[in-house]
Every structure is written in C-alpha cells, then in structure tokens.
Amino acid sequence: MIVHSLSRSIRLAGFLALGALALAAPALAQTYPVTDDNCGVTTIYDAPPQRAVTLSNNATELMLALGLEQQMAGTSYMANLTISPAYAEAYAKVPILSPLVATTEQLIDAEADFVYAGYPDGFSESRHTRDQLHDLGMQTRLNVEGCNLGAFGFPQLFDEIRSVAAIFGVAERGEALIGDLSARLDAVKAALGDAAAIPVFIYNGGDTAPNAVLGNTLLSQAVAAAGGENIFADVANRYGAVSWEQVAEREPQYIVVFYSGTAGGQAVADPDKELGQARVDILKATPAIANVPAVLNDRFILVNSVQGQPGPSTLDAVEAMARAFHPQAFGQ
Amino acid sequence: MMHHRSDLAASPNQTRLLGVLRSSQAEHASVAAVPAPQGRRSLLSYGLAMVVLTLLLLVLMLAGLMLGSVPVPAPTALGVIINAMTGSEIVPATWRGVYDTIIIETRVPRVILAAVVGATLAAAGMTIQAIVRNPLAGPSILGVSSGAATGAVIVMRWGLISLGAFTLYFSAFAGALATLVIVFWVARSGGQMTPTRLVLAGIAMSSVLSALTSLLVLTSPDPQLAARVLFWTLGGFGSAQWKLLPLPIAALVIGLGLMLVQARRLNLLMAGDETAAALGLNIHRFRQAMFVLTAALTGVMVAVSGVIGFVGLIVPHIVRFLVGADHRRALPAVALVGASFTVGADLVARTLISPLELPVGIVTALVGGPFFIWLLRRDAKSGERSS
Question: Fewer CB in 10 Å around end: N or C, chain B?
C-alpha cells in the first residue's frame, strides 16, 4: 500500500511569502460596513470581528491561512485530527473550545462576536441556528459549500476566501492566499502535462454498501485537478450510498479513502488508524471489488477531512493525490 | 407488590385498558360499571402527591439551570437566578457577564421549553389513551409527530415559505395539521370514529410519512438538510429561545384547561362506549373533538422541539399508578410528572457525554421503552391472574 506523506515544501514557501507580504503591506483601508450575503443570510459588518470562533477544521485553517489568529477567540471540531504544520504555530495561540462543534454556551463563554462554520452541520436546530446566535450578538458565516446545491470547485473555494477576507478587512491577504493556491494548482497541472486522467473511487466508509463522495464536492474536483476522474462525478450530490457492483463495474485505478475525525458523533482517538486504515482493510476484504485494478495493485491513498473538506489544505490533497496517481509525471 | 396489584385490579379503567389491548372487539364487548373516581384508592394522598411532584419539578428545573457544557459555579448560577427573578442586584454580581447570558438566554428558556413540552405531551397522551381506550396509544401514534417532521422537511428542502425564525415551526405545525385531517378522514366512517380505526390510520400515516421524510433527505442535494432533519426525528431543546416560548406555553395552558373542563367526560369514555352513550355523551363527537385538540397540541410541541417519544406513552401510566385514573385529579399530576420527565431527560442528554449532547428523544426512549415493556409484562401477569 502506498500512503503518501504530504509534500509541504511548496505550500510552506507560499505561506512564508504570504507572511512577508502581510508584513510589507499593512491592511489597506477597507470601507465598512461590509455586507455579506451567505447561504440565504445577509449580515452587515460595521467593523472586523475581534472574537471569532470556528466550528470546523477547514474553517479554522482558512482563518489561520489569512493570518487572523489575533482576532480569534476559539476554535472547535478538530476532533483528533492534526492541523496542517503550516498553521500549527498560529493554531496553538488560539484556545480550543471543544474537539467537537462548540456548544451555544461555549460560544457565549468565549464571548464570540463571529461564528464561522465550514460544514453544513455547524448551524442547525439541534445545536444552534444562525438566527439564535444572531440574537445572542454573534454574526455568522457558513462556508458556501455547506449550502451549495451544484458543483463546487476551486473558484468557489477562492470566493469563500475572498468573502472571509472581506469580513475581516484583509482583502489583500485573501488575494495573496488565492494567488498562492492558484499557483500550486497550476504547478500540479504543468507537472501532469497531458497525462490521461485515471478513474478514481472516493470511498467514505460503509461495508454492506459503500458511501461514495459524489460530484458536488470539492474533493471530487480536487481529484480531477490531480489527474484523476471521480467514477461517481456524474452523480450531482455530495455523499451517497452506492453499491459495490457499481464500483467494480467502473474499475477504479486508484481509491481515495476519505475520513473525518469522528465516528457516531464522537471523536475517535486515532482517526488515521481507526478510520483511515480500517477503511482500507474493508476495501481489501470486500470480494465484490477484489479484481478492481486499485485493489489488485494496492493503490490506496488516505485523505482526511482536514485536507478533503474545502479549505486551504485541499491543495495538500491535490498535490499528494497527483503524485500518487501519476508518479512518472513527478519523476518518481 | 401484592398491594399494588390489588390496587390495580380494583381499577376498572386499568383492566379495561388491558382488555382493549388483548382484544380488538373489546370496545364492543366492554360493559362495566361507571367509574367511581371518588372512591378510588391511590398510593398517596392527592394533596401530598401534588406537593411532592411540584417540588420534584422545581428541583429538576433548578438542576437544569446549574448544569451545562460550560461549568458555571453553583453560587454564581444561584445569584444570577435570584437577581433575575427579583429584578435587582440582591446578590452582588461579581461574576463574568457571560454567565448571565448563558443562564438567562440559553438555560432558562431551555428548561422552560422542556417542562412545557413534557407537560403537554403527557397530558395529550393521557387524553389519547382515554379516547382510544388503549394504553399503547401516545401522541406519536396519531401520526401527527411524523406529519410535523415531514412538514418541516418539505419546507426546508424547497423553501416554500419564509417567516424568518418561525418558518420551520410554522411548517411543522402545518404538517401536523394536514396529517390530522387525513387521519381524521380515514378514521371516520359513517359519522363515527372508532378507536381501532383511529390507531390504525395513525400508524399507517406515521409509516408513510417517515418513509417520505427519509426519501426527501436522501434525494436532496442540500447538504444542510440531513443535520437539520435529525433534530425533528430525535428531538431536542437546544434551540430554545425566549421568543419561541409564548406559543407552546399558550398551547399548554389552553389545552390543559380544555382537558380539565372535559375531565368528567373523559372518565365516562373510559367506562366504555355504551355506558358513556347511555349516560348521555355523544361519544363520537366528543372523541373527534378531543382528537383534534390532542393532535394540535402535539403538532405545536413537535414544531418547537422535534419528536420526543414515550413521554405521552408512559407518564400517564406512572400518574394513574400514583394518583388514580380520575382525569380531574390525574391531568394536573400528569402535566407535572411529564414536565419532570423531560427536564430530567434533557439533563441526562446534556451531561451524559458532555460536551456532546444526546438528542433528548434517545434518552426518553431508552428510559421509557424498558419501563413500558416492564409495565406490559406486569399487566400481562396480573391480567392472567384476574381472567
């Protein structure tokens, strides 16, 4: 089995450049109020939030990538996944409110003035709705992937970065981050050249019927950017149960094993082993797909939700997957 | 235990309920004396029971204000409550202002909502058990809970209406009412509404609507839908807000008031259709009116808190055991015990795996289910003995 360690050098360089840029060009005067139209909720910001709290790992990383740790009062829902090394130092400066989604009480306790969720379950009637938080004096934003009804690609991710940067009055940092991520996408594209896309199954657990990551996710587009083609890209939804027969019939050359840090709503101690590796074991033990090229050749790559959910680290996943799918293009 | 059994056996209502359970013809076969509520023995004197039950509810509500995902020191919590109730700073507020917000804006409405929902569901359950003369019945058996969930899901999926924060509550209630109309129509035949038809129509509607809800969620491209629907299918009080409280409180006051006014008639109904009719009650019209009342009450509660099972099913049994089956005495008690049950269940849901919250419906089912099974076994044994 090939588990690729992430190549960090490119992004690290980009991050350093971004830091230098942020120092060199102090925040340009941005005019407030800023109006944010987001998932059917319009929010008007009279000033940049000063006590932001994030409700998911991709929201956390997106804010840290914009260098906003000074304006954060807390993070939550990293479970036991590991933050990307590029953001580890900044992450350590912000209190971790909860391994799961911070509760309403924890948000009040943190004196949050802005709550940012990266997953659709961040705001709901079972925890706290956006309306409820608004009444408690907290402004909110949901990563648009969380309310998106169609395909979601890198342009949408860049729009998300732009929107968050605008709320905090750091538009130029947003553009720098987008420039960095775009450059990395272009670098992968250049390296791949005209290599033919290989069929890829993105597996999200399940044994009697596999859960597939479908066409409306950023991960599906990340696979495409890495020179693969999601075999279920034609299904216009985010996640869904398919059948092993369909997986066998579509003959994936590679299987991306996607996993989060939680199972049954609880954080698991070692997600890489208990969820990632365990899912590889399920794939290997499933007779229906025993003759699929990916299984025959032991071609699995683990992508956790820090990289797989829409955020700056999605580029880590693109780079790692590109090297796995097309080693020859990277001189390996 | 022997004492309890003989106590049960002495209650014609209880044995009749079992009769209905065992035989679908019981509604025709039942001929029994009119209940004589005044003479019924109960475990405790009624006054004492009510005092104890009220104190229990108050203690649980206070505990509900003390505990949560952010630890607030007990003296601080008490200080916040005392100051808020008296409207002045009797206890010097030396604590962080956020503790006021946590307790006043999240915990107080949550505890009140839990109590109101529990009281209403339990009272509705007791009335439903009387009108269908079946102890297996509860608010969820009428299909109204599923209807509310389906209504909310349809509006969430297609965004049919927009009433701000009240959109989903309104649509859940509309779903409940629509289901009520259908069940009512199915259950009525020739101007009559028999308990058996009512229960079967409710069960059928529940199944169809649950399947429809799942279908809507599974085929929806909206990523938010699944997480939001979970709230309606398993229930919870986490979204409690002051501005959402007036409607359920009004429903409880009006609903419980109407039930109390009709308490004598509910007693008559328990005696059997023939007996009730012989004593001048228009049983079909009365049954229909009570059905509409309980279904509407359930619809309001599901709209604000999701489906919380077993409250309306088991609390009436506990209360009949404690204070007897006379509705004039049992209805106020059932409201108190129902409130205590949900406030307590919410307490468990919030603290058992803190900071994660369990859906409160899981707690009520885990506690209520086994209790109900025990009740059935016990009744089955005493039934075998008496028959």
Answer: N
